[in-house]
Amino acid sequence: MMQAMTGKELEYIADSMSNEDLLIKQCAIAAATITNVQVQQACSHMIDVHTQHYNTLLSAVQQHQSMAPAQPQA
Fold first, then answer.
1. DSSP-based three-state secondary structure for 49
2. pLDDT tens digits, 13-38
3. Could you tell me the superkingdom of the organism this chain comes from (predicted)?
4. What is the 8-class DSSP label of residue 67?
5. Would the pTM count as exceeding 0.85?
6. Contact 49, 27 (CB under 8 A)
7. How far is 34 from 48, CA to CA, in rounded Å?
8. Residue 53 burial by CB count (10 A; 0-12/13-18/19+): exposed, middle or buried?
């Protein structure tokens, strides 16, 4: 049986999701502005990789959502 995530773990995941989102945006900007096709393809691949990371983190949070307390703990 899974245990609920701690507040610290949730903060870490939220920070990681924010970082992945930033990397996706940076790669998208690079892919749109770079003229070298090989570098564009590499940036597009990295968008896919970081999107997969983001979705994995989101899935982890969603799986544990049902275990979270309905009210903040005192």
1. helix
2. 999 999 999 999 999 999 999 999 99
3. Bacteria
4. T
5. no
6. no
7. 17
8. middle
